[in-house]
Amino acid sequence: xxxxxxxxxxxxxxxxxxxxxxxxxxxxxxxxxxxxxxxxxxxxxxxxxxxxxxxxxxxxxxxxxxxxxxxxxxxxxxxx
Length: 80
What we know:
With 80 residues, the chain is an alpha+beta fold. Helices cover 35% and strands 22% of the residues. It is built from two helices and five strands.
C-alpha cells in the first residue's frame, strides 16, 4: 500500500533485528523520494554544521554519533 502511493519507508542505517529479544528495531520515515532526499541532506548539513561550529553542544545533545545512525535507505531496497 505504501509503495503503491509513491512512497517508501526510509530507515536509518542502524535498523536491524534483535534476535536475542526476538524483535526488530526500526527508526524510519514514510515519504516519497524527493522529500526523503531533502530531509537527509538537511539532516547531514545540520549535523556537520553542529559538529564543526558547536562541538560541545553536539556532544551534549546528539545521543548517537555512530555514522551508521546518520545513513538512510529505502526499506524496499533490502528485499529486491
